[in-house]
Write a sequence for this structure.
């Protein structure tokens, strides 16, 4: 459905230390690191390395226009979890690293009966969601 997602950050080193931990809870690993950006992809049994093709990848970067990165009001980035345990682990890791709690892991019946999600806000105001759609 999408090619890639880019999240603006202000302190790349600080953000890398945050995203490395929380994204690993969902099976994503960093595949690229440059002066102004870092990229993450999924490790599968087929590739044994994070996918760095840019497809279905997540990038964090300092804005190329040199201005401050700001989270979008009303925008959230929902990351797919394979299990509710992954949602819980994502949430715990994010909160322990200083993210803001915007909704602890729970069933959100307003979406559907199996929508298990948590909401956190990173250091730059980006709202991140980890969600599992599976019945358990």
């Amino acid at each position: 459905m999408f090619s890639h997602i880019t999240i603006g950050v202000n302190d790349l080193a600080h953000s890398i230390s945050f995203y490395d931990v929380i994204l690993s809870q969902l099976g994503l690993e960093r595949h690229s690191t440059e002066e102004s950006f870092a990229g993450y992809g999924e490790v599968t049994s087929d590739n044994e390395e994070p996918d760095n093709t840019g497809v279905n990848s997540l990038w964090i970067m300092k804005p190329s226009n040199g201005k401050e990165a700001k989270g979008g009001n009303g925008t959230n980035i929902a990351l797919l979890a394979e299990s509710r345990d992954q949602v819980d682990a994502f949430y715990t890791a994010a909160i322990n690293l200083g993210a803001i709690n915007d909704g602890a892991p729970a069933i959100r019946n307003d979406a559907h009966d199996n929508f298990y999600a948590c909401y956190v806000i990173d250091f730059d105001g980006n709202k991140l969601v980890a969600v599992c759609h599976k019945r358990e």
